[in-house]
Amino acid sequence: MKRFLKHCVSAFALAAATLAVPAAASADWLAEAAKPLKGTEISGIFLDRPGYRAIIKLLPEFEKRTGIKVNYEIVPYENTREKEVLNFTSRGDLTMALVDLVWIGEFAENGWLVPVSELAKDKATTDPNLNLDGFFPLLLNAFGTWGGTVYGLPFDNYSGLLFYNACKLKEAGFDKPPATWEEFATAYAPKLTDASKNQYAYALQSLRGETQSADSFMRFLWPFGGSLLNKDFKSNLMSEGSQTGLKFRQDMLKYMPPGVVSFDHAEAVNALAQGQVAMITEWSAFYNTLVDPATSKLGDCLAVAPEPAGPAGRLPALGGFSLAVASQASPEQQKATWLFIQWATSEEIAKAYVEAGGVSGRMAVYKDPDIKAKYKFVEPMVASWEKGVPEYRPRFPAWPAISEVVAEWGSKIELGQVSPEVGSKEIGTRMEAILQKEGYYDGKKKLLQ
């Protein structure tokens, strides 16, 4: 996987060099570019998460400057890929694709996305200050790039962080969060758990589906020295590191609220916000929910740190989305959608986007003294993006089918219905059958894109 990341970085550098645009610009390039497109309607899918609520707050500015109408539907994450795939295969009305990092291969290989290089050929609708080099390379590579081609721009960007209630930790005798998962299990968790008072040390979002497969199951592989696949795309779940991580997760269930295996992100965040748990490992995007007095009781007790390290080191989760232009859109809609995507991910509105509750993929905004001082999540998040983390979820087109298998058996492992060994063997057998059918073992498809 590390070899894959290096390949993408060099591919991105080449792509960025080919997308340079003139520096001169009008006083308002966006308004000028949109004049021929006034009245055009574009459409996409948003999630019910802070980053999307943030762009919705800023949307009137875009529509006023451009005369372009942005239609959106808010869809639960677990239903988003299915809804988009159905729309694209039936040549529906979506002009914009919301692309999770694990969907990029499927969407690109099916021809549903327009490459940025094609869009940027039209200088009239390309921001003179587009500056692809201004994105964190890790994010542009993971969320928007496939096979060396940039398709989408990072929009809703996540790093896994440890959010915790510093007051609860202090009451239990701790003046800082656990630095390692071993420290969490042996020292912190027992003192922070009292089931008789409905008080628990930790909540891990584990709802069956992508939340279970990505946010729960995969989170405890890499830090413990494991991984889903080896370099030949065979199952690596029976390795010592993978088994140790999955057993650790299973053992932690006694320190979590009953029913946590049905918790999605909202339930995990709410458990911390309302004082039921002392710690969660969640995406950076939920910071604003936890500091909002309307949704959280934490107040000054909220603190943020990197995710704890495992035996293999500190390897936090990476997640996020890009926005891309859908190939099924009309030429006018493609231009209008391209304008919206550039604006929504631009350096121009990055600070306003962050202050409205979003997490920008632009490096410059996190150097702003006001942003660094105001938002506790910035320092640990930026550190993880600059260091780089393993692509702990494969991005190939076969992932959605594999994710269903991982979600089913990952839930059984976490609940103790099967042992990590038995569950891992089932996942490995079924996963390799999917990859065999898809042509990953007979040379029909490249193992590393």
What does this structure look like?
With 449 residues, the chain is an alpha+beta fold. It is built from 19 helices and 10 strands. Strands 3, 6, 7, 8, 9 and 10 form a 6-stranded mixed β-sheet that branches. A two-stranded parallel sheet has the order 1-2. A hairpin with a 2-residue loop joins β4 and β5. The chain is globular, with a radius of gyration of 22 Å. The N and C termini lie close together (10 Å).
Index terms:
single chain; 449 residues; alpha+beta; D-Maltodextrin-Binding Protein, domain 2; six-stranded mixed beta sheet; two-stranded parallel sheet; 19 helices; 43% helix; 13% strand; globular; disordered N terminus
Largest sheet: 6 strands, mixed
Radius of gyration from CA coordinates: 22 Å
Using the alpha-carbon principal axes, give the shape: globular
Distance between the termini: 10 Å
* Rounded average pLDDT: 90
Main location: periplasm
Signal peptide: 1-27
Keywords: Periplasm, Signal, Transport
Protein name: Sugar ABC transporter substrate-binding protein
Q: How are the secondary structure elements laid out?
A:
Elements: H1 2-18, H2 29-34, E1 41-46, H3 50-66, E2 69-74, H4 77-89, E3 96-100, H5 104-109, H6 116-119, H7 137-144, E4 145-146, E5 149-150, E6 152-165, H8 166-171, H9 181-192, E7 200-203, H10 210-217, H11 240-251, H12 265-273, E8 277-283, H13 287-291, E9 302-306, E10 318-325, H14 331-344, H15 350-355, H16 369-374, H17 378-387, H18 399-415, H19 420-438
Parallel strand pairs: 1-2, 7-8
Antiparallel strand pairs: 3-10, 4-5, 6-8, 6-9, 6-10
